[in-house]
Write the structure tokens for this entry.
Amino acid sequence: MSEPRWLVDEMLGRLARYLRFLGYDTEYAHGATDDAIVFRAKEEGRRVLTRDRGLAVRLPDSILLTRTDIGGQMEELGAAFPTLRQEVRFERCSLCNGSLTPLSAVPPNADRETLPADVLSGGTAVYACSLCGHLYWEGYHTRSVRTRLTRWHRSEPASL
Ligand SMILES: [Zn+2]
């Protein structure tokens, strides 16, 4: 089964970032009209996640989310799409959806003051976004993302 590529509507920007942390190709339809979203979903073969009932009706393959909080949205998405991955992957830039590439060393033009010592020394793998150049590594931020994902996943209602 091929992995879904998502198109997330304007009201779900935070969800888009988390789906990218999970390694999903996720575009964020910021400022797009419903017509533009429908067109792009079909053109690019993307599955739409939306809080807009009217838009969801136009796209039978879309998933309508009703919760306003990110934890609730992850729960709803997990219920509608049970094979949703739960582990963080270094594959997509959370800022722009560019693909991440592992680097053999920190690039010379990187802002070294923002990087922890174990990244600078080469002790921790570092990845760069192919589009915006943002750097990623395993650290405090990924641990806190992982903790939140686990908490939301566990708070799913128990099945009968
Ligand atoms: Zn990027």
In short: Residues 20 and 94 are 5 Å apart (CA to CA).
